[in-house]
Write a structure and sequence with these properties.
- The protein is of the alpha/beta class.
- It folds into 2 domains: 30 residues; 104 residues, no CATH class.
- The longest helix has 25 residues.
- The radius of gyration is 24 Å and the shape is elongated.
Length: 148
């Protein structure tokens, strides 16, 4: 049987590359820093398909994640989210459900308020909530305005 050192060298490089790629994968996907979060809640009449794990964005930048979605005692859709505790949200900030394109994922969008003296604290609550508007809702508004 003939020995081929070229195949052995190439195989060794492929093996080292595979181990290196696996270690890079682990480095990117395992968080080693401890980010402290604040739990903030909001009540919606219509949630439009927001699920646990969806993003919470402030001006398009991810600042948190949806941690729980359930119905409260008054049958509102309660959303609990974990937001980076470094982010100080004014008390009159507004939260709404948005969509990433026509068929994209839903996310919660925060528009900060202008009151910089009072902030939403840990276990706080959003007072200003804008409910989800589906495409059907928007079309019906356009038809209603066109018929007036």
């Amino acid at each position: 049987m003939k020995k081929n050192y070229f195949e052995t060298i190439i195989g060794t490089f492929v093996l080292f590359f595979a181990v290196y790629a696996f270690l890079m994968f682990l480095k990117v996907n395992i968080k080693t820093d401890k980010i402290t979060t604040s739990k903030i809640s909001a009540n919606f009449l219509k949630l439009g398909g927001v699920i646990v794990g969806n993003d919470v964005k402030l001006r398009g930048i991810k600042v948190g994640v949806v941690s729980d979605v359930f119905l409260d005692n008054e049958y509102y859709a309660r959303v609990e989210m974990k937001i980076d505790s470094k982010i100080k949200l004014p008390l009159n900030s507004e939260i709404s459900v948005q969509s990433e394109g026509i068929l994209g994922n839903k996310y919660l969008s925060i528009v900060p308020g202008d009151d910089s003296k009072k902030y939403i604290l840990n276990n706080g609550f959003f007072e200003n909530v804008r409910d989800y508007e589906s495409i059907e809702d928007q079309v019906s508004k356009i038809i209603f305005l066109a018929t007036q």
